[in-house]
Design brief:
Elements lengths: L5 H13 L3 E3 L5 E3 L1 H8 L3 H18 L2 E8 L2 E9 L11 E3 L4 H6 L5 H7 L17 H11 L5 E4 L6 E9 L5 E10 H4 L3 H18 L12
Antiparallel strand pairs: 1-2, 3-4, 3-8, 4-5, 6-7, 7-8
Helix pairs in contact: 3-8
């Protein structure tokens, strides 16, 4: 239903069960488990609640997909995704590697080589991602050093061939990276809009960063 190949879904399911995001019932069917709801519940409710219209505007404006993601070890977890009505979400997986995605690299933008080596400890980068994916910690750090002056990342063919992802880190008031907001789609669709996408993402990241310091909105009272 979400566009993931059956074989890939089969490989992902046990991992998601191990992490408590899915649970398998006695009849072998899968359902969402507590971990899935606990993750967003532990984060800033104001950001999650108010990110949808921001992501929706980005998706519609650029005819692409827009995502809000956080880092979980070596994985990038999409908390919310919006897509233009005419386009199936690019790279539809809700769980992706941190080393070969725009959002993943944005979440690691402040990491030194030593920090990256610690995150990737024990993981094999060969054979994962698209033709421009990093195959070592050194390559990942070099890609981030290239993008750091722009304050965001541009990942071309890194996770999936023909897909470009632009991502900006979302920072709290202490400049710590909390999450990432990204726009991704087919290269021929998004690359010509690069400058506008960059400006929009930076603005959206600032807005979401400000929401980190705001209390969650309470329920509306109707007269």
């Amino acid at each position: 239903e979400v566009g993931i190949e059956r074989s890939k879904a089969s490989r992902m399911s046990p991992k998601l069960c191990d992490r408590g995001f899915l649970e398998r019932s006695d009849d072998s069917t899968l359902r969402v488990s507590r971990g899935f709801f606990a993750l967003p519940a532990s984060l800033a409710h104001g950001v999650l609640a108010q990110s949808r219209p921001i992501l929706r505007r980005l998706a519609v404006a650029f005819g692409a997909s827009a995502r809000l993601s956080v880092l979980d070890g070596v994985l990038v977890r999409a908390l919310r995704t919006e897509s233009a009505a005419e386009q199936r979400p690019a790279a539809a997986s809700l769980v992706t590697p941190c080393w070969c995605t725009g959002a993943g690299r944005a979440l690691l933008l402040d990491h030194s080589l030593e920090d990256v080596l610690s995150v990737l400890d024990g993981y094999e980068l060969i054979g994962v991602g698209g033709p421009n994916a990093a195959h070592s910690a050194d390559e990942l750090v070099a890609a981030n050093e290239r993008d750091r002056p722009q304050g965001m990342t541009a990942a071309h063919d890194e996770f999936e061939h023909g897909i470009t992802e632009y991502a900006a880190p979302i920072r709290d008031s202490h400049s710590r990276i909390w999450g990432a907001i990204a726009v991704l789609g087919r290269q021929q669709d998004v690359v010509p809009q690069e400058e506008a996408i960059r400006q929009s993402l930076k603005s959206a990241a600032r807005t979401l960063g400000e929401l980190l310091e705001s209390p969650a909105p309470g329920p509306r009272i109707h007269s």
